[in-house]
Specification:
This protein is mostly helical. Helix content is about 65%, strand content about 0%. The longest helix has about 50 residues.
Amino acid sequence: MISALAAIDRELGLPDDGCNSTAQTLNAIRLLKLAHRDDVKAATALEKAVTALECERGVLLGLLTDCAAVLRTIDPDDSDEAEKLTDLLGEIDSAQAPIRHQGILECPHCSYQWTVPCSFDEDYS
């Protein structure tokens, strides 16, 4: 029993103090379970946040599609307006399907390409 408790203590990262305290081992197991429970709660909260963001993204992509459809109905008055409309429609297309436009969308702060939002923080620059 003592050698089993010592082996468990080693696996839990407890110091080899020679006393093989059952209370110390049980406390370490309780702390490990609490940490695991907190990790599970955090992972669940993160999954919910990701789902919410995916839903928002879907709504925004639908709105961009509608905006692009309206912009395509506009007859430009001059070449400058035509160029601006073309550029805007290109940016909408890039936002809707960034994979088709690798290298076009970049974060202005870190130059990271559009697949992940930038973690740049103005307060820490």
